[in-house]
């Protein structure tokens, strides 16, 4: 595909379509739950498999404040984390985008998928899944991030950039 321009289709995020890349984190009406706090709250467990223990890692919880991206957007790279999963849960109730490719040595442009997430949907990228860094839309947005913290100085982030092919996310009405 060298020298070509690829325009990604933007698909609604569903658990079924996202399954090869990880889990969708959301509490829908049909999500199993149990009552807590004397019946004043519903708790839905096991929404994602947080995977952080490899090579002495621990689980880190953070809040990221994201600046929105303008569409159309040129996707020039993806990243992956080989030692742990990475969960992103929106706190600002705004739509956002996820671009992914299957785990493997190098992400193939032909395998890229772009999902539109509602403000009530998070994702947990499985270990090794190629993904674009956070793509907030519309306004500054806060996200809860749950991922792996390794020993001091360790960096578990591999990047891959394309050369000769341009990949674009088109303008969409949800942005």
Structure notes:
β4 (34-36) and β5 (41-43) form a beta hairpin. It is globular and about 60 Å long. It is mainly β. The chain has one helix spanning 15-18; strands at 5-7, 10-12, 22-25, 34-36, 41-43, 58-66, 73-75, 77-80, 86-90, 96-101, 113-117, 122-125, 130-131, 135-136, 141-149, 158-161, 166-169. The chain is 2% helix and 42% strand.
Number of continuous helical runs:
1
What percentage of residues falls in helices of 4 or more residues? under 10%
CATH domain class:
Mainly Beta
Q: Give the topology string: H per helix, E per strand.
A: EEHEEEEEEEEEEEEEEE
C-alpha geometry: globular
Q: Could you describe the largest sheet, including whether it forms a barrel?
A: 5 strands, mixed
Q: What integer value in Å does the Rg equal? A: 17 Å
Number of domains: 1
Sequence stretches where pLDDT stays below 50 over 5 or more residues = none
CATH superfamily: Ureidoglycolate hydrolase
Q: Write the CATH architecture name.
A: Sandwich
What's the N-to-C terminus distance?
29 Å
Q: How many beta strands in the DSSP annotation?
A: 17
SSE class: mainly beta
Average per-residue pLDDT, rounded, comes to 95
* CATH fold-level assignment: Jelly Rolls
Strand content: 35-45%
